[in-house]
Amino acid sequence: MLPAAMINGLMYGAIYALVALGLTLIYGVLHIINFAHGAMLMLSLYAAFFLFHLFGIDPYLAIVIVTPAAFVFGYVIYRWGVGKLSGGRDQNILLITLGLSIIIENGALFFFTGDQQTVSLSYSYDAVDLGFVFLSYPKIISFFASLLICLLLWALMTKTDLGRAIRAVAKQREGARLVGIDVENIFAITFGIGIACLGAAGCMLLPIFYVDPYTGNIFVVIAFTIVVLGGMGSIVGALLGGFIIGITESVGGLLLGESLGQIGISLIFILILILKPTGLFGSKV
Amino acid sequence: MAARNSTLLFCAIGFAALAFAPLGISSKFYLDILTLIFFTAYIGQSWNILGGYAGQFSFGGVMFFGTGAYASSILVNSFGVPAIIGVVAAVFAGAVLALCVGYLSFRSGLRGSYFALITLAFAELLRVVANSLEITGGGVGLFLTYAPGLQNLQFKTPVGFYYFALILLAISIAIAIWLENSRFGAQRVAIRENEDAAEALGINTLRRKCQAIMIMGAMGGAAGTFYSQKYLYLDPPIAYSVHLSVEMLLVTIVGGMGTVFGPLIGSLVLHTVNEVTRNFIDTPGLSLIVYGIILIIIISYLPNGLIGLFKGRGAKKTDARQGDGDA
């Protein structure tokens, strides 16, 4: 039972990592906490859902549509929304993204109703037998696709000029400006990439989860926990944190039962914040 | 001092008018809405004590409400204690929880977004715990028996709950006025404006912040009893709903943070928006969309909230006055 729970946790952990990656990237570069992260994940779940429902597009193929769309959405929201309105103040950004999440969440409630939606794919119930655990195809695909996207993001950040520019802005805002980097543009691009992670995560999550206007709330605490655990701004930390939280959740559920099992995540969150707020790989608070 | 006296006079006239209002308002509908407005203003004020004046934003303020509600409901249900004593336990439970949460977080130096997030996590933790315990009724929830009477804090008519909420509101405003004019209040404002400087001036910031969150917790606890005695039902999603945590900070920010009447104004606007949008299109979500937009506009263009519109530079002046008066 235990190995099975751990493998299952690992599967979800990869998707959690992807969600957290977007959050930690935005934090690492812009030093803002995007409280609307959960709401935006919920939006991309709906995007994948409607692409499937209306046009019959497989959620895994929808990644190539939803991810760029999410990037554009994030870019626009930052460039002409959050960045302009907040005046750059930390608490204002927190509250504006909170306002944004209220608008998105209730917008979804208004347009899509509060009903839970799921998709059923032709291969939803096909599974691989590993001896001690059955893994459904969607879980396996989601796992490897999430890992691949994390890897691509890492390559983008370390191997490309854009990545170098983003890291330069993260380290030394003014210095980056001096060498001719358009800092505001980089901010918006980073925000866009962060939201694009959610676009991909939404497509990956839909076949193995459900969506309703409040789905995002479930992932807000999980994503923040991973980011804090891994260290704010750390990509490796987010990946590792995602796996730890995924496993904690499923093993907790196994040992403590369905309802009390969720306690592990908030407990880790509180303990890390109190004892080591820099997380595993973070530099400073 | 003149400003203080006029505030007190304004309050006295306002509350006298509201106390006699049920004589003129016979509609159950309007009494219920007024009750709701008072209740939201009250819980907003509890958030304001810590968030508005001391500058510590909490995203999990609902935890005091929920814990208070459970404390009094369990005493009523399992031990046959009358709710009027239960509410004392609720206030106490809220304050103790606040002390634990506040001490743990403030001692670790958590500020700003980090503090906001840890309160969210505490509320989440308590929701999961309440969901799993037997004494809270788990996911099924607690049902309270309907037994109107003052000792049970239950009333046959909406007028009873109207006065209950009005008294809570009056207490919360009295606390806010008292704090604004006390040394403690001035020290909290100092913490909000510059915590390091306040510490350097010899203010025990940890103690002050813990006191502020305890007042918030105590107020939240009483709100919990009000809710459970009015609606006679309680379950973990209600007791620890993110929605209420958000609502209490929304009304305060929209009305005006760090002001005595901010939460009341915000609450008035929230419930008016709610009723008006419901009249046009009765689909869930619309009123909060409007309210979210109002929130963003206020944060961007009116940092002093709606109250800033009436006072001009009032909010700033108030702070300066306090600093001078207490120095």
Secondary structure elements and their pairing?
The complex is a heterodimer of chains A (285) and B (327).
Chain A: H1 2-30, H2 37-55, H3 59-86, H4 90-112, E1 127-129, E2 134-136, H5 137-159, H6 161-171, H7 173-178, H8 183-205, H9 215-230, H10 235-256, H11 263-275
Antiparallel strand pairs in A: 1-2
Helix pairs in contact in A: 1-5, 1-8, 1-9, 1-10, 2-3, 2-4, 2-8, 2-9, 3-4, 3-8, 5-6, 5-8, 6-8, 9-10, 9-11
Chain B: H1 2-24, H2 28-53, H3 62-79, H4 83-107, H5 112-132, E1 142-143, H6 158-180, H7 183-193, H8 195-200, H9 205-231, E2 233-234, H10 236-239, H11 242-255, H12 262-280, H13 286-301, H14 307-311, H15 314-326
Helix pairs in contact in B: 1-6, 2-6, 2-9, 2-11, 2-12, 3-4, 3-9, 4-9, 6-9, 7-9, 7-15, 11-12, 12-13
Describe the structure.
The complex is a heterodimer of chains A (285) and B (327). With 285 residues, chain A is an all-alpha fold. Chain A has a domain at 23-215. Chain A is built from 11 helices and 2 strands, in the order ααααββααααααα. Chain A has a two-stranded antiparallel sheet with strand order 1-2. Chain B is mainly alpha-helical. Chain B has a domain at 25-241. Helices cover 77% and strands 1% of the residues of chain B. Chain B has helices at 2-24, 28-53, 62-79, 83-107, 112-132, 158-180, 183-193, 195-200, 205-231, 236-239, 242-255, 262-280, 286-301, 307-311, 314-326; strands spanning 142-143, 233-234. Chain B has a two-stranded antiparallel sheet. Chain B is globular. The interface between A and B is large, with 44 and 40 residues.
